[in-house]
Design a protein that fits this description.
With about 230 residues, the chain is an alpha+beta fold. It folds into 2 domains: about 80 residues, Glutaredoxin (3-Layer(aba) Sandwich); about 110 residues, Glutathione S-transferase Yfyf (Class Pi), Chain A, domain 2, CATH 1.20.1050.10. A 4-stranded mixed beta sheet has the order 2-1-3-4, sandwiched between helices. Bound molecules: glutathione. Glutathione binds next to helix 1 and helix 3.
Length: about 230
């Protein structure tokens, strides 16, 4: 494991999809960090997160060496790319690939990840507070995004350029959970092959292996699975 210049602590939960995005980046470059697993239902554990980031959202990276608290998954990965640089560059050095990596990161967060979260979040609401309209809109957005991505990923290994970037870190958790709540493996070949490639990537395979004991906590059926999807259309 590469020793970081500072001492890094990551506040996260092993089932939380935005935390996976940052774990992938940390594992890609074998970056040393102290894991702090947060259970929001445990007041003592929640207090640990509140002490560093009172917004109570994770992931949060605390860099004691440099005295920084870094929130928002995209910004954490950007920070790692600057201060804990390893062989994998999440923001490519080429300026045009750099903005493309940032653009596709935004795409995956806004049009896949957050839509998937709306559907999962609705499953956690009480029966008298469901939002079928919002869930329907999220499903429509996901399907539109799948069609768009199918074109983008045809003939491509990773989202931007030839290498694994920030955009792929964002894509992995978003597509993994999206394929559960609004499956695409029966309709979108290039997208399914891309998700399979992501799941075989050692960094993401490790995240999934570590998360597997928590898969039972997922509030919808089917539960998440490490079985790599195949196109069935
Ligand atoms: N935009 C934020 C989203 C973070 C987020 O939604 N995290 C979820 C876990 S995946 C969370 O903190 N959930 C706890 C809560 O909302 O109470 C990021 O990219 O880091």
């Amino acid at each position: 494991m590469r020793a970081g210049a500072g001492s890094l602590r990551l506040y996260y939960h092993p089932l939380a999809s935005f935390c996976w995005k940052v774990l992938i980046a940390l594992y890609e470059n074998d970056t040393a960090f102290e894991p702090v697993v947060i259970d929001l239902f445990d007041p003592n554990s929640a207090a640990r997160l509140r002490a560093v980031w009172s917004m109570m959202k994770f992931p949060v990276l605390r860099d004691d060496g440099r005295g920084h608290t870094v929130a928002e998954s995209t910004i954490v990965i950007d920070y790692l790319d600057t201060h804990e640089r390893g062989p994998v560059r999440f923001i490519p050095a080429d300026v045009d690939l750099a903005w493309q990596a940032r653009m596709w990161d935004r795409f995956f967060d806004a049009y896949i990840h957050e839509q998937m979260q709306r559907i999962v979040g609705d499953a956690l609401r009480p029966a008298d507070a469901k939002d079928p309209t919002g869930v329907g809109q999220a499903r429509d957005q996901l399907r539109q995004s799948y069609d768009f991505l199918e074109t983008r990923m045809a003939g491509r290994k990773w989202v931007v350029g030839d290498g694994f970037t920030l955009a792929d870190c964002a894509a992995a958790p978003a597509l993994f959970y999206a394929n559960i709540v609004e499956p695409f493996a029966g309709s979108h070949r290039a997208l399914t092959d891309y998700l399979a490639r992501l799941m075989r990537r050692p960094s993401f395979a490790r995240v999934l292996e570590e998360a597997e004991p928590s898969f039972v906590m997922f509030p919808l059926e089917p539960k998440p699975s490490r079985v790599v999807p195949e196109f069935t259309g």
